[in-house]
From TrEMBL:
Pfam families attached to this UniProt entry: 2OG-FeII_Oxy (PF03171), DIOX_N (PF14226)
Family designation: Belongs to the iron/ascorbate-dependent oxidoreductase family.
Enzyme class, broadest EC rank: oxidoreductase
Pathway: Alkene biosynthesis; ethylene biosynthesis via S-adenosyl-L-methionine; ethylene from S-adenosyl-L-methionine: step 2/2
GO biological process: cellular response to fatty acid; coumarin biosynthetic process; ethylene biosynthetic process; response to molecule of fungal origin
Catalytic activity, as annotated: 1-aminocyclopropane-1-carboxylate + L-ascorbate + O2 = ethene + L-dehydroascorbate + hydrogen cyanide + CO2 + 2 H2O
Sample GO molecular function, one term: metal ion binding
Positions of transmembrane segments: none
Keyword entries, A-Z: Ethylene biosynthesis, Iron, Metal-binding, Oxidoreductase, Vitamin C
PANTHER family, per database record: OXOGLUTARATE/IRON-DEPENDENT DIOXYGENASE
Name the record gives this protein: aminocyclopropanecarboxylate oxidase
Residue ranges occupied by any Fe2OG dioxygenase domain in the UniProt entry: 153-253
Length: 321
């Protein structure tokens, strides 16, 4: 049984750097997921985020979720449900413009701490992108520039709770999917499990670890790396006991960013096979993804390829402010 990859970022500043970079490379190429420890975000901040998130759920969301379950008759279902998820969520936007001040029902302290947490995660995402550039043999900053568009990247957070489920064999916490965007950083509950990824045809648990950040590759990084890194199907299994907290932050390209395989990586592959991935505007991909999230990603790439063959949109060079 392979061990889920855990990367200790403090070790990057020691004589073990080469080994740690190799571990990061293997995780990106063969898992699409990894778990970061000693990532530079303080345990105190993470504990505060968790405490306030769970308090907010109890105060503002738990009753709303119970009413939704009652209205849909979900506690009495007898057959598998494949068109909804056993979760309750809200979304925060950070870049290019924050909406934290506008989201209702958030206490002042919670707004403040989520803003600070987002700033730390943004820096961590950009540091990670530079480490990926190093492993891929791309110039430093290439991935950040590829995400930039004209207004910088988009960055936002999905705060989700997965309450206890009476029929976990019939209702998924979150149905299997790949993530549409760039790089995803997840602060997950360290007591209630449920997140799984698909590897070699088998569902594998992503182990809950105290104060870790789970990282996974999105569809855009698969395209830019010309398939060297792959986005991986994952899901959340509903649990009969415990309320699972999930805070997933998505560092994505700007809406008008033009996404395509990095030329250096495409050239390395061209002797083996032709260019696999399309060139497209990120916003166009997101419109397609919205309708096809829980379906296979390959038809999405094919649809973008066909769309670009028939469009006259000018996909010029990447804007790098």
């Amino acid at each position: 049984m392979e061990t889920f990859p855990v990367v200790d970022m403090e070790m990057l500043n020691t004589e073990q750097r080469v080994a740690i970079m190799e571990k990061l490379k293997d995780a990106c190429e063969n898992w699409g997921f990894l778990e970061l420890v000693n990532h530079g975000i303080s345990h105190e901040l993470m504990d505060t985020v968790e405490k306030l998130t769970k308090e907010h759920y109890k105060k503002c969301m738990e009753q709303r979720f119970k009413e939704m379950v009652a209205n849909k008759g979900l506690e009495a279902v007898q057959t598998e449900i494949d068109d909804l998820d056993w979760e309750i969520t809200f979304f925060l936007k950070h870049l290019p413009v924050s909406n934290i001040s506008d989201v209702p029902d958030l206490d002042h302290d919670y707004r403040k701490v989520m803003k600070e947490f987002a700033q730390k995660l943004e820096k961590l995402a950009e540091d990670l992108l530079d480490l990926l550039c190093e492993n891929l043999g791309l110039e430093q900053g290439y991935l950040k520039k590829a995400f930039y568009g004209t207004k910088g990247p988009t960055f936002g957070t999905k705060v989700a709770n997965y309450p206890p489920c009476p029929k976990p064999e019939l209702i998924k916490g979150l149905r299997a999917h790949t993530d549409a965007g760039g790089i995803i950083l997840l602060f997950q509950d360290d007591k209630v499990s449920g997140l799984q990824l698909l590897k070699d045809g088998k569902w594998i648990d992503v182990p809950p670890m105290s104060h870790s950040i789970v990282v996974n590759i999105g569809d855009q990084l698969e395209v830019i790396t010309n398939g060297k890194y792959k986005s991986v199907e994952h899901r959340v299994i509903a649990q009969p006991d415990g309320n699972r907290m999930s805070i997933a932050s998505f560092y994505n390209p700007g809406s008008d960013a033009v996404i395509f395989p990095a030329p250096e990586l495409a050239e390395k592959e061209e002797k083996k096979n032709k260019l696999k991935y399309p060139k497209f505007v990120f916003e166009d991909y997101m419109k397609l993804y919205a309708a096809l999230k829980f379906q296979a990603k390959e038809p999405r790439f094919e649809a973008m390829n066909k769309a670009m063959e028939t469009t006259s949109v000018n996909l010029g060079p990447i804007a790098t402010a």
